[in-house]
Amino acid sequence: MTKLFQRVTVRKNERALLLRNGDFERVLRPGTHWLIPGIDTLQVETFTLDQPAFNHALADYLMASEPAVVAAAFVPVALGETQVGLRTENGTLVELLAPATRRLYWQGPKDVRVEVIDIAGGAEVPGELAARLVQTQLRERAVAGLAGVLQAQVPEHGAGLLWVDGRLERLLAPGAHAFWRYGRNVAVELVDLRLQNLEVTGQEILTRDKVALRLNLSATWRYTDVLQAFRALAKPADHLYRELQFGLRAAVGTRSLDELLENKTVIDEVVTAQVTERLAGYGLQLEGMGVKDIVLPGEMKTILAQVVEAGKAAEANVIRRREETAATRSLLNTAKVMEDNPVALRLKELDTLERVAERIDKISVFGGLDQVLNGLVKLR
Questions:
Q1: Are 161 and 188 in contact (CB under 8 A)?
Q2: Distances in Å between the alpha carbon of 177 and those of 25, 161, 325?
Q3: Cβ-proximal residues to 154 (8 Å cutoff; 6+ apart), any chain
Q4: 222-to-193, 236, 272, 286 alpha-carbon distances in Å
Q5: Cα separations (Å) of 82 from 96, 103, 122, 167?
Q6: N or C: which end of the chain has fewer CB within 10 A?
Q7: Which residues contact 74 (CB under 8 A, 6 or more apart)?
Q8: Whole-angstrom Cα distance, residue 17 to residue 205?
């Protein structure tokens, strides 16, 4: 026996769709409903309002052909190509809707609202909304759709380069920033404005006399105009590195090893002058640089050590000869003085006797001290 009536119960936190022979007939609200199938096939689809989004194949049909049903049971969303939507539930932001989104949300216990924002005017998210999006990251429930917003935090000692569709737009000051990614390619590159260090190591360079040197250089630099630097150069730090390499080759390759060893500051002076000139107009400034190490080949170290040793030996020999000559000249002058002055000769003899006596443990004296002096030293 065919049933004349079919009872359907919709709970208070539910809504239902009644389909007759697969086609939409009406929305069933909470309560008990008596349906008369007749010869048709009835189907009831129930939806819980814990998830307000109405994800169903009939959504587009209802929005296009059933405006009265949509107004009575749903919150409709139909965004344009340059619009985004901020969906809130009971005043709390829960989702960021992308442009061209078409969706229905059930009306019910949760107060669902969608705020529409036009993003055609620019990529930057308004400051108040940007701060609101940052605060949502601290909540237990994450906001859906945040991938459509680029958030950047520029530190106090730096700056941010804003790139939009491959074009450098402007410089971002320290602080929090946010930009719409919809319909555009947005990127933020952070730049450190503090004094920076750059190491150029392991540079193998031949001197003018074909001696291979291995040099390590350290330099400090900073940005003077970040926009100018990145508009002119793809990678400013790499450009500075290459210029330091070229400067080293210009300083070492045009001088002999002896010239470099005699004037160790010539490398610093030449590299600094050349690099400073080459960086003009690029927004970079070389603050200081210096060669940390100059490493010679093993055989060259041995040869230089022998040269230094021979030089020091010759220098010591010259000093020794000079001192011997001075001593001989002093003795000759002393002899001339004593030859013309018997008293001075007598004093010298007594001084010599005193030094001799210091080396003798015991002295036996016969005939008194005068006899000793007269016997040992006779004044002519």
A1: yes
A2: 49, 12, 85
A3: 160, 172, 173, 174, 175, 176, 177, 188, 190
A4: 7, 10, 15, 7
A5: 14, 16, 10, 20
A6: N
A7: 54, 62, 104, 105, 106, 107
A8: 82
Take residue 151 and report the two structure tokens written for it. Answer: 């958030």
Q: Each residue of 290-329: pLDDT tens digit?
A: 988 888 765 655 555 555 566 666 777 778 778 778 777 7
How is residue 212 written in tokens?
């291979």
Q: What is the pLDDT of residues 262-276, one digit of tens each?
A: 887 899 999 999 999
Contact between residue 208 and residue 253 where contact means Cβ atoms under 8 Å apart: yes
* Residues counted in the chain: 380
What pLDDT was estimated at residue 380?
A: 42
The candidate with the shortest Cα–Cα distance to 82, out of 57, 118, 56, 112, is 118
**Measured between alpha carbons, how far is 34 from 25 in angstroms, rounded to an integer?**
14
Query: Tokens at residue 334, please?
Result: 């002393």
Lowest-pLDDT choice from 74-83, 127-136, 310-319: 310-319
364/4 Cα distance (integer angstroms): 162
At residue 1, the pLDDT reads 44
Structural tokens at position 223: 């940005």
Q: What are the structure tokens assigned to 50, written together? A: 């814990």
CATH architecture classification, 196-296: 2-Layer Sandwich (3.30)
List beta partners, residue 121: none
d(CA 50, CA 125): 30
77 DSSP assignment:
E
